[in-house]
Amino acid sequence: MISQYEIQDSALSQISLALRQHEPPTGILPLLTPWLTPTQIQEQLISHINDKLNLSAGYKESVWRSIIRYIDASSAPNDGSEKPEPCELLVELYAECMCANMMKMAQNSRAALPTADAGVDTLVQYTSTPSSTFDSGLPPIQVNEQRNVFAQGGCTGHRTWEAGIALADFLLESVEVRADSSCSKSSSTMILRPGQFRHIIELGAGTGLVGLVATINLQPKKITLTDGDAGVIAALDKTIILNEPLLAASAREIQKLHPSLPRPEIVTRTLWWNQDKIDENDATGLPDLILAADVTYDPTIIEPLIKCIDYVFNLVQTRAGGSGPHVLVSATERSVITLARFKTLCVENGFTYNVVRSYQAPILSNFFYFNASMSPKIIIFELTKDTTQV
Ligand SMILES: C[S@@+](CC[C@H](N)C(=O)[O-])C[C@H]1O[C@@H](n2cnc3c(N)ncnc32)[C@H](O)[C@@H]1O
């Protein structure tokens, strides 16, 4: 039974996911405000945020400030219940963070100012595996993102988008790592297993969340993370180095369960759709899974994208003399016209599109926090072709 002085596990889990993802504090106040009275429960919330989530001092300062401002502005509820007051711990931590951040700013004051177009990197943390996957819990995936910049120099790949989070969520929902399945909680219609794919390729990989989730959980022999933007690829290389301890630990854990699986080779490269070719003589073999998330946002990029998928699909299908690769595309429905264009072009290029999962706000996930304002609806399509006709 939940005591009056305990935060519900499900609420604490959503709060933790949102804060680790560096969601704007004002946007997630509705998650926090039910836990500001009585004082004991507020203290429990503040201690959890401070001690368990490994957040930067800059972000914590903005979280504490948002809570204090909310409390200051709130009046006594009509139902006779207590008006929240900031607890001592909250006030102390806010003062501590402000001092630490002011000292840091003073130290950095002589450093070059960022250009108007450049964003500020924020270390964002994402769930890396379903909690039941391994006996030992693995750390989160860490990605340096520019959370407040939607497009830097015209490039949208420096933050993780909701369709990418949805595809990562779908992979985590679908993966069954243990051969005995005793710990599996797969709720997806698709069941994926480590080692099932030899070579995964991701198109428009951006920050790499989807690629890292696929590497850690599906353990292909090789994964090629591609993007058209050289700056995105340079950032992706740094992200892979940053996550090296996690990648090594997850490979060791998977090998305990599946000893024959080698540690995945991760390759990054620029690949401009319908222009650049893949390595057609790849020693590992051609891709057997194509992943792509939030790459249908602009009508002008959909045709090259489909042409690129079609090129890889036909190459694999011709070489293998049978079926083509699996293809999963995660699309945010920002405009009905854009999505209709995607579907039309799929059909014109001989693909059948099947919806394997759709996400509609409010989205409650065990693995990620979904910001409702960022995405009205996300659809994950599987593209297939009737290869008997070829
Ligand atoms: C909206 S971001 C999505 C990034 C990531 N998949 C996600 O979901 O967070 C789109 C990505 O596609 C890349 N991109 C756009 N047009 C491209 C093209 N024609 N060829 C290759 N990459 C492209 C961009 O550089 C960017 O990284």
Automatic annotation (TrEMBL):
<dbReference type="InterPro" id="IPR029063">
    <property type="entry name" value="SAM-dependent_MTases_sf"/>
</dbReference>
<dbReference type="GO" id="GO:0008757">
    <property type="term" value="F:S-adenosylmethionine-dependent methyltransferase activity"/>
</dbReference>
<dbReference type="Pfam" id="PF10294">
    <property type="entry name" value="Methyltransf_16"/>
</dbReference>
<protein>
    <recommendedName>
        <fullName>S-adenosyl-L-methionine-dependent methyltransferase</fullName>
    </recommendedName>
</protein>
<dbReference type="GO" id="GO:0005737">
    <property type="term" value="C:cytoplasm"/>
</dbReference>
<dbReference type="InterPro" id="IPR019410">
    <property type="entry name" value="Methyltransf_16"/>
</dbReference>
